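Sample pair:
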Amino acid sequence: MLQVCLNGARGRAECSHLPLTAAELAVAAREAVAAGAADVHLHPKDGDARDTLEATAVAAAVSAVRAAVPGVAVGVTTGAWAVPDPYVRAAQVRSWTVLPDHASVNWHEDGAAEVARALLDRGIGVEAGIYSGTPAAERFLAWSGSRRVLRVLAEVTETGAQDALHAAVGLLEALRPAAAPILLHGEDAAAWPVLRLAAARRLHTRIGLEDVLHLPDGESAADNASLVRAAHGIIHATP
């Protein structure tokens, strides 16, 4: 499965064509799915283009994208950078009026289990975000609900290609006891090497402007769809 990560916590200062509004996210999702993406991950934004978990913003983004790509699962973030207090994050999840299909929960962040429980209680799939270089894998595997998650996001945070590949192998080894499918991905300069590793290991993966702003040849990506097309080609060319 190839997921597209449409925008992330970035802003227009990093990427002038980053989709931020619900309408922009809908267009980007439609184009990315047409290019080969099978799942959508996005960060709803407030009026100042900052990540938010506020119910109105989540409803607008999820509804617009769902209408643009009917039948395709749509997920959002619950990152602590949007709302540092995990109990407030969980309360906001419980206030959502339009429910995404899934939401990511980062297990190195305080209160991850509380946020995950709030999602599961509402029937929302949990993507367990496990960052390399953190105790997240151990924390997640020790959680009593670890077998209830939709998938595990193995997130390689090292940005040098060789360091990232080494970290990815170690992270996958640490996650061997996990019962859920693994989605492996990297970021910035490591995004493409890690995607190739995921393809070689027949793992789920993702690509999009959240993770990388350049195509494999180093050219700036015009949009999410161009990244998805490149990733789709790599995956299908991998023996």
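Helices lie at 22-35, 55-68, 86-95, 112-121, 136-142, 161-174, 191-200, 224-237.
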